[in-house]
Design brief:
Length: 64
């Protein structure tokens, strides 16, 4: 959705990073931006983080 051009997700909505990526645990990362958070899950199982489910081998963009 970060590269979308819809009203809900206009291009660039994620904004600039507010810090470095954080390794939550092996294969699972989180990074915050001015407009949201990105979760990356490189493991073979789903991951529950901050009330969201990140599918296995996938990423999740969450708008603030």
């Amino acid at each position: 959705p970060e590269m979308g051009d819809s009203a809900a997700y206009p291009r660039g909505w994620l904004g600039l990073p507010t810090g470095s990526p954080v390794k939550v645990e092996s294969g699972r990362w989180k990074r915050t931006f001015s407009g949201g958070t990105v979760y990356a899950n490189a493991t073979s199982g789903a991951w529950s983080a901050d009330g969201h489910t990140v599918p296995a081998q996938d990423g999740l963009f969450v708008k603030q």
